Amino acid sequence: MTENIHNVQPNIYKPAIMKIVARHDEAPGVRTLRLEFQNPADHDSFMETYRTGMFGLYGVYGEGESTFCVASPETRKEYIECTFRQSGRVTSALANADIGDLITFRGPYGNRFPIEEFHGKNLLFISGGIALPPTRSVIWSCLDQREKFGKVTIVYGARTVADLVYKHELEEWLERSDVELVLTVDPGGESPDWKHRIGFVPTVLEEAAPSPDNCIAVICGPPIMIKFTLISLKKLGFDEANVYTTLENRMKCGVGKCGRCNVGSVYVCKEGPVFTAAEVSRMPASDL
Amino acid sequence: MTKILFSDKLDNCVERWKKAGFSVIGPVQRNNISTYAAVERAAELDLGLILTERSIKELFFPQSEPMLQYTIKKDSIETKDFLPPSGQRIIFGARPCDASGMAIDDPLFGWDYKDEYWFQRRNESVIVTIACTQSDDFCMCTSLKLAPDSTKGSDILLRPLENKRGWLVEEITDRGRDAFKAIADIVQESADTAAPLAVVEKKFDLDRSVAWLQNPENFESRFWKEISMRCIGCASCTFLCPTCHCFDIQDEGDTYSGMRRKNWDSCSFALFTMHTSGHNPRSTQSARWRQRIMHKFNYFPGKFSVNSCSGCGRCSRQCPVDMGITETLQEISKLSQ
Amino acid sequence: MSIEEQYRTRAKELLAGGAVKMVIGYGKGTTGERRRPIFITSPDEVERLVLDEACITNLSGYLVSEGLLSDEKRVAVFLRPEGVRAVNILAAESQLDSDQLVIFGFDVVGNEIKALKGIHVEEFADVIESLKESAPGVAKELLLEKIESMSPQERFSYWQGEFAKCIKCYACRQACPMCYCRRCIVDSNQPQWVNTSSHSLGNFEWNIVRAFHLSGRCVECGNCDRACPVNIPLRLINHRMAEEVLGTFDHFAGTSKTQEPVLASFKKDDSETFIL
């Protein structure tokens, strides 16, 4: 499902300018930026359209643009956040940016998690490593309206303790009585005082064995983790139509024109990034 | 009696159009290549070419286009939009395959987000197409259910006369009608007849090929590796193709000022889908060739109800290793028998 | 037996006996005058092989395709003398092991096909030597003479006009056997050494960088020239660079598989001592 802005500006490739108002190091090489729109009209038009699941193109003039999800939930209207790993030209420039610096943003683009369809249901969030940001956006969108949903279970793991992101929020979730957070690290990644699980996410998921009844699952992670997690979910009795995931492809324009994110008959920037597992299974696996 | 434009009056037409504020563009031979370029006089046009080597797409979607100039100051960023230069244009002497190629790309450039770079140029251009009386071994418009006298994408269709003295004028759109008002007294009523059109044999069965492509079982077929073994990944086919439209966005300049540009890109390039992590979904040339064919004849028509190909044949004509869409679809037609 | 038939028979023997896993040669093209590269893996396919004066493309570039020679099996390939020189260079630059190749050498003299004797790269040393001897005196084509008679400004202007046509398709690079870099300098974006745009600067940067990277390595097979979709006479630039290298360093690309690349080696008696 798509809700797109029919962009009224003459230039659909022109970004909005954002100021970095906060930055936080989540893990080695992983940074979160909190951004505010410099132009109130840009802010308003964004907040009117943005729904959890949509992504943006964050950039630095002179370097280029990079695609990340909007990591903040649709329920928070003062700022947006993104979390990224420093790996290439643009992310290095973003990592070098300080509080007060200006960066560019285009969005929100893409489709959304159909949150109203989750009302009254139990929610199971499964994520790994640097892929927590898109899940986190959905998690907060739901927790900010907690009464609308049933049981909320989060299964999250990373390679090592240091690689866990949003550590302060993980602590918050651990303390909430209305959320069950199952935290794990890969075998060998634990610290001496690690109190939580040790094991790969799909294994830990099967141990936790959440019930598929009236439950929606949201998985975000590297392709290999999604593959094995889907197998585990099937074992637990989940139907592919009730499992949601996000796909990431290399993008440039974000608006369905440059062709780069096209996989199978789908343009990830227009008909995604949110897909059900059933939709993903219809895409050519070797082109993903 | 029909409307005829005699070719010895073409210079007058060019003058009239220029007076009316149009620039006149048409097929020319310049610098050892045939392309579409602006002309001052009719004599500069080469209307005898079967098809220009470079396609009409460059008039609407140039290889490199400035979009935004940026200047980074201490507490602010200033930008200046660069939209295409405004100006009415008459493109005289396009071929039906080229004109239809532009119509094929319209739905993509207007898909929810309107690309003004494309539409400003489209809205300011009148396409006067000349039907083909000759073709070569590489033409394949009829295989795409088009024809040497297709009107798709054209504002006026001119049919060459049998006596070679000019063209029969067919008005297709209001835009074409309006543009020809400027030469209303030059166009005459006459009984001259049109020359026979080029006979372009069908090279492959389109419906059968598309059905084969739509079958998900054929995605992993060994056929893809075999058909593309000799492909060198050079992108000539995609760059000369009137309907290919993939592009890249590049910032050129330094940390203080520069230009954000839109440049052609190609799914044939190895790095097209490369993720920063090093994962490349289409890491072999055969996967990339498959994407090209699937996109043109399966994914694009799935969204926009039209194949992303106008049968101009440039891909096959130019390929350094004699590949092209024609061969692939011919082989697929055979496979699906 | 014509040379075409001789080579077909030999290809059949090699494939049937398992001596080679593949034969890379020429087959009929879309039209009568065209030939296309074909890849034969079974002895029954040898009838598809064609050998005549239309077989011009240098096939040596396929030898460095990813994974082709990595199983240590042998591959047979049809090559003209420039192709053999190309193999020597690729071997000297550690891109392939020429012992994995069986070469079906041929040359086109006028309208006749001549078979070149030998199947290993070393056996063509005389052919290459004779090419080197005749190199400076090779009949010049009209366009080359015209450019050489221009003043430097006129020459620059000429090339500005030619490069203005460039659309950065990189067909020249893809067609060239010597352009085998997994990541070309234009693909680098930290920093972006060469602009990808096809404006004047971007085009000059690309074409001149490529000409320099090829000096002393280009075998003048003409693949780049034929591949260019906008008819830029690339062969002339590379020919001129090859002439310069021959004159200054007495270096003829590809005379042997141990020949060091001229711009990547230093001898004590080189005329410029800046490196010391």
Question: How are the elements arranged and paired?
Answer:
The complex is a heterotrimer of chains A (288), B (337) and C (276).
Chain A lengths: L15 E12 L2 E8 L2 H10 L5 E6 L3 E6 L10 E6 L3 H7 L6 E8 L12 E7 L3 H12 L8 E7 L8 H9 L4 E6 L11 E2 L2 H8 L6 E6 L2 H13 L7 E4 L15 E2 L2 E2 H4 L2 E3 H5 L7
Parallel strand pairs in A: 7-8, 7-11, 8-9, 9-10, 11-12
Antiparallel strand pairs in A: 1-2, 1-6, 2-5, 3-4, 3-6, 12-15, 13-14
Helix pairs in contact in A: 5-6
Chain B lengths: L1 E5 L3 H10 L3 E8 L2 E7 L24 E9 L4 E5 L7 E6 L1 H14 L6 H8 L1 E6 L25 E5 L5 E6 L2 H8 L6 E3 L15 H9 L8 H5 L8 H5 L6 E7 L3 E8 L20 H20 L9 H5 L6 H11 L2
Chain C lengths: L2 H14 L5 E7 L6 E6 L34 E5 L1 H12 L8 E9 L2 E4 L9 H10 L7 H7 L3 H12 L7 H5 L24 H15 L8 H5 L6 H16 L27
Parallel strand pairs in C: 1-3, 3-4
Antiparallel strand pairs in C: 1-2, 4-5
Give an account of the 3D structure.
- The complex is a heterotrimer of chains A (288), B (337) and C (276).
- Chain A has 288 residues and is α/β, with parallel strands linked by helices.
- Chain A has two domains: 16-109, Translation factors (Elongation Factor Tu (Ef-tu), domain 3), CATH 2.40.30.10; 115-246, Rossmann fold.
- Chain A has eight helices and 15 strands.
- Chain A has a seven-stranded mixed sheet, with helices on both faces.
- In chain A, helix 5 (201-208) runs parallel beside helix 6 (223-235).
- Chain B has 337 residues and is an alpha+beta fold.
- Chain B is built from ten helices and twelve strands.
- In chain B, helix 5 (206-214) crosses helix 8 (285-304) and helix 5 crosses helix 10 (325-335).
- Chain B is globular and about 65 Å long.
- Chain B has helices spanning 10-19, 96-109, 116-123, 174-181, 206-214, 223-227, 236-240, 285-304, 314-318, 325-335, and strands at residues 2-6, 23-30, 33-39, 64-72, 77-81, 89-94, 125-130, 156-160, 166-171, 188-190, 247-253, 257-264.
- The mean pLDDT of chain B is 95.
- In chain B, the strands form two sheets. Chain B has an eight-stranded mixed sheet. In chain B, strands 5-4-12-11 form a four-stranded antiparallel sheet, with no helix packed on it.
- Chain C has 276 residues and is an alpha/beta fold.
- Chain C folds into two domains: 3-133, no CATH class; 142-251, no CATH class.
- Chain C has nine helices and five strands; from the N terminus they run H-E-E-E-H-E-E-H-H-H-H-H-H-H.
- The longest helix of chain C has 16 residues, at 234-249.
- The radius of gyration of chain C is 20 Å and the shape is globular.
- The N and C termini of chain C lie far apart (59 Å).
- Chains A and B meet through strand 13 of A and strand 4, strand 5, strand 11, strand 12 and helix 8 of B.
